[in-house]
Write a structure and sequence with these properties.
alpha/beta; TIM Barrel; 7-stranded parallel beta sheet; two-stranded antiparallel sheet; binds coproporphyrinogen III
Length: about 350
């Protein structure tokens, strides 16, 4: 029987191949917070909008901002322009991003405040994010992957209880340690809404997901199991029930030795490493378990020059022996010169 002529060109995306434990033709890279204030084209667009949420919930603007770094630098993945705090917002918590001060939320400190939140508005409020994802998905070439994301319940809860960014997390830890039942009901609401949100992002075109647990390092090891590992495992289970092959990157920033039980128990596909994780230790202990992503110190990128070159050589030297996605250990600092990002990409491509 005659076979129709088939294209032998592979359409596999290097970033996805590596997350699936396969070899790619180069080390794929993207940078956390690659869309944002270090880019002049972002600052220009931001000046024309009322505020952060006005951009994030405008599908055309969110699509444009997601694509800005890809046009300039050609990363292997685009991450949808949004924020982890859209979930509390969609659950009904008042949220504002104050220029220069970060996010401000009406703090939730008791059962009464918590009872006002719910999932009835979730779909309506989050649909612009799904619309933005499908727009971006239609614009990317066949080598560039699209990442959807959400905050992990613990990290999102820190903002919900503290009412914004925090140094010591006293209020949220007091609730977690002292009123575990109340705190559990908040975490359960976050598990349910976050899993739903991630599933819908996949349906809108996300090809991989990242779960940001930026403040997982604030907890002791028992509480880390309860509020970081367990909720993440439940979200991963729910997402994989709907989409069994979607790669999920877990980023338990600051977890230290907690990276090991996190890798062993959450079901994530890959681990995002923060800059404090030793790359030699990660190569020996974590990379045999699953692919890793990371972990250049964003301040080495801000510094540039020899400091940048040395740090990049160490990260690549230590981690490129196994499945590895190059990234930073945290988001790009807003004062990073664009030329340093160019320099870094030059190093990665050479
Ligand atoms: O990575 C990307 O390019 C995608 C977009 C993205 C944003 N926030 C846009 C944003 C992502 C993935 C996030 C995640 C996020 N948001 C995290 C987890 C990662 C981390 O940094 O630890 C956290 C903790 C937040 C919460 C948040 N959002 C804070 C504390 C702030 C204010 C401080 C800051 O960095 O500006 C934001 C605002 C925010 N989110 C901005 C951007 C581009 C700045 C908005 C602006 O003023 O233009």
């Amino acid at each position: 029987m005659n076979q129709p002529a088939t294209k032998t060109l592979t359409t596999a995306k290097p970033f996805i191949e590596v997350l699936n434990g396969q070899k790619a033709d180069h080390i794929p890279f993207w940078f956390m917070r690659q869309a944002g204030r270090y880019l002049p084209e972002y600052r220009e667009l931001r000046a024309s909008k009322k505020g952060f949420l006005d951009m994030a919930f405008n599908p055309d603007a969110a699509c444009e901002i997601t694509l800005q770094p890809i046009r300039r630098f050609g990363m292997d993945a685009a991450i949808i322009f949004s924020d982890i705090l859209v979930i509390p917002y969609a659950l009904g918590q008042a949220l504002d991003f104050v220029e220069g001060e970060g996010p401000k939320l009406e703090p939730i400190r008791d059962a009464q405040a918590l009872s006002k939140l719910g999932i009835s508005q979730l779909e309506a409020k989050l649909s612009p994010v799904y619309e933005a994802l499908s727009k971006v998905s239609g614009e990317l070439d066949d080598k560039t992957a699209l990442i959807g994301f959400a905050g992990a319940p613990w990290t999102v809860a820190t903002y919900m209880v503290e009412g914004g960014s925090s140094r010591d997390f006293i209020n949220v830890k007091k609730m977690a340690y002292g009123q575990p039942e109340l705190f559990s009901s908040m975490i359960n609401l976050l598990i349910e809404s976050t899993a739903h949100y991630l599933i819908k992002q996949v349906e809108a075109g996300a090809e991989a997901l990242q779960i940001f647990d930026s403040w997982s390092g604030a907890l002791d090891s028992d509480e880390f199991r309860k509020w970081v590992i367990e909720p993440t495992r439940q979200i991963v289970d729910l997402v994989k029930d709907s989409h069994p092959t979607i790669p999920i990157i877990g980023f338990p920033k600051g977890a230290g030795y907690g990276y090991v039980p996190y890798a062993e128990n959450t079901g994530v596909t890959a681990l995002g490493l923060d800059s404090q994780v030793s790359t030699k230790w990660a190569a020996r202990v974590l990379q045999p378990l699953m692919p890793v992503q990371g972990n250049l110190d964003p301040i080495a990128l801000l510094t540039g020059g020899d400091a940048l070159k040395l740090a990049v050589e160490r990260v690549i030297g230590d981690l490129s022996g196994g499945p590895f996605v190059f990234n930073l250990g945290h988001g790009i600092h807003k004062d990073t010169p664009v030329e340093h990002v160019e320099e870094l990409i030059g190093l990665l491509r050479s």
